[in-house]
Amino acid sequence: MRKWGVLCAVVLGGPVAYKYKKSGCVRNESYQVAIQESVDVIKQHKQVHGYPGLSVSVMHKGKLVWSEGFGYADVENLTKMTPNHKLRVASISKALTSIGLIQLYEAGKLDLDADIRQIVPNLPEFKVKEPETKNINTNENDINKNIDANTNTDATPSDSPPIKITPRLLASHLSGIRHYKNIEEFLTNTHFSSVDDSLKAFINDPLIHAPGSRYLYTTNGYTLLSKIIEHAASSPFSTFMTTSVLQPLGLFDTFPDENEKIISFRAKNYLLKPDNKALATSYLINAPTVDLSNKIAGGGFLSTSKDLALFGSEIMRGNVVKSASKENLLWKSGRDGEGKKTGYGLGWFVKGRKKRVGERKMISNRVWRVGHGGGAVGASSELMMVPESELAVVVIVNLVGQRLDGMAWEITRAFLRAERDLLEDEEDRGEEGTENKKIVVAQ
Question: Which of 3, 285, 292, 363 is 20 to 30 A from 260 via CA?
Fold first, then answer.
């Protein structure tokens, strides 16, 4: 049985640590080793990948057990990163949007399998044209490296009968709606005044494949989904999300990223530019200014690591949507036309499997976990959750193009080990209690 020291939200001492001890973090000596191991992991990754700043938060069984910032939120002004800094959460926005979708479904306001052209009658008729594809990218974390032409919008649509796309297909990336056509779409600084305005960029393009036949990750699909949500909710998408999802959950630091607004604790965005004189080195520069109004549902929210950890925790604890909706919709992998699992439910990636009898303490890559990662201009993010342990881990960095799932998994494993030791301590205490009872009886 391990013995633990005492450590709360911030490992490092000094005035900064004192500040965050008032942030709602739970003191529990059982987490010390997990936090210290996680700090070591973060420092290693930060050194290797050059993150300007990083924010991390962990919630376990409804309690905030760790929340800390590393590096800088603003490099030029030497502003330290904190868990209160707001960063672009990129495609974790899709997980947020999925909750609004399911709430409408549970309220009987939206049929997940209805034809979206019946929900929004003015949508155009969809046509399929199978294009030649190359290096199709289904991971938005790598979008800056490889947008590539996964579509050929110059192709002439085939003469086919009307095609049915459903909210379920949109949410599970099985609709055939294309992703970004090129890097210019990803870096657009054009402001879109409404969801209808955003749809104009792709709504008339032919589908990449027949709906339901293939998995193709697409942020545009979530922009279209936000239009469906607007009709079902009889409310603008951002308004509905704020009043029905974010505020009821207490996510007051989560909202659409708007350039013109003055937002306290907004972190700066960066990217690494390759040094042509020395290919092995890169240097940090400010990320270009972009406008995310065309993809709020799929990649346009700002948040803090603390808010997102709370979001994940509340879902796992059953305070957001019904258990059946989580099990059978959000966290159940979709299947393509050949019946193969896609590893993606409705707004959530799904990995591993549930524990079997006798595997309560199992810690391996087979552990059932759900979540989402993403990459935005100037930021990368990862939300990783283990529902059976009610464990939520969130990592966000203010640097584009970073894969954070490996680091998040290392942190998750550290806290799963802490949970295992807690279980062993409980068992030991139970055995000690039984022995004491036997002694009393013997006397």
Answer: 285
Helices (H), 136-243: 167-171, 183-186, 195-199, 219-233, 237-240
- Check if 91 is active-site: yes
What is the spatial distance between Cα 191 and Cα 198, in angstroms, rounded to a whole number? 9
Question: Helical H runs in 286-400?
Answer: 296-299, 305-316, 323-325
Lowest mean pLDDT among 241-245, 275-279, 325-329: 275-279
Q: What is the mean pLDDT of residues 93-107?
A: 98
**pLDDT in the model for residue 21:** 40
pTM confidence score = 0.84
Neighbours of 363 (CB within 10 A): 16
Which residues does residue 71 pair with via DSSP β-bridges, in sequence order? 53
Which residues are within 8 A (CB) of 187 and not within 5 positions of it... i.e. 6 or more apart? 288, 290, 377
Q: Write the single-letter amino acid at 15.
A: P
CB 378 within 8 A of CB 88: yes
pLDDT tens-digit map of 309-324: 999 999 999 989 999 9
Question: Cα(169)–Cα(346) distance, rounded to whole angstroms?
Answer: 9
Using alpha carbons only, how large is the chain's radius of gyration in Å? Answer: 23
Name which of 17-21, 282-286, 382-386 the model is least confident about: 17-21
Q: How far apart (Å, rounded) are the C-alpha atoms in residues 254 and 243?
A: 12
